[in-house]
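We treat protein structure as text, and this decision shapes the records that our systems exchange. We quote a single record here, exactly as it is kept in our systems:
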Amino acid sequence: MGISHDIGLFFPFKVNRPLTAEEKKRRFVQGRRRRCPGEAAVLDFETVIRINTTYLEVIDKFHSTRGMITAFIMGFCIMIVFFLSVITKIVIFNNGSILGFIFYFVAFGICFYFLIRILLKEWFRYTHYPVRFNRKTRQVHIFQVSGEIITVPWNKIYFTTNRQRLNECIVGHILAEDNDTVLNTFSFGHVGTRDELSRYWEFIRCYMEEDCVAELAATVLYCPPVEYGREGYITGLQMLLQVESRLEWLPTLLLLPLSLVESVSRYIGTQTSRRPQWSAEVEMACRPEPGDPVNVGAEHNGPGRWRTVLANEPRAVYDAKNQYLKDANQKIRDKMAHNRAMNVTMSGTTGDSNTWG
């Protein structure tokens, strides 16, 4: 296992430091079930690339917002090129000041250099940075932003949250032998509220620790189509335009010009970037069983994606989907309760390692 820290996408994680009090308070603990209020015990938030009985592969936390930051940078770069072209034309055809031209050229050139460095955080890199949770070997394979692949035992990772302005994401810390010093950090999947992350964590934890893989796979209704090819323009645009309710239609419409620019930047970044390739060792360790009854990926995505993106499904379809997820979650709860009862019966005790938290 490599311990060199990830370089991060836009901002690197702080490493070689002790865990903070907040990280300890917000820890997600392996082997401890979480009580999630409401009907949905687990949710995947459309982050699953592939799920089968051997491994669960999820997308990186940057996927949903890819193109947003670089759209502004792309705009500034175009403006700089335009101004330099105008200044050059003035100097050549209108006998402008050479010293003024040199000054503006150097100033804009320095700005252009730093803007390009930010732009290249998404362009000419990798299309995404997946994480694989191997249920059978109990290992986690991480494709880092640096391109390095590291493998860490599931129980050796310190899972907690990292603040993202108004929202948070789940991160995994790799600690030193003192179990307090952070050597490396990776993030993955959904960015959202604490309540959403509890459901998302329970989805991941259940996959790794509970006997309910088929039930979990039944809750996966959409997979980002990035496993075998690059994301298309329309798919990227849909990701940027996705809303939770029809109340968001008006602000989405007002921001449509900006979203279109972001979609262009996202598409350029996707088309100029390499697809991540797992090492032969990881592929061998994650080789699915022949005839695996659980195997869900983007090829199972249903029709009518635009309706889902714009929260414009017919009421009957919307209610049927929610009822389906409610029933699937209830099956997960029932399966875990049954498994826990069996463990209690077999061990002859009133508790097990999977305590509720």
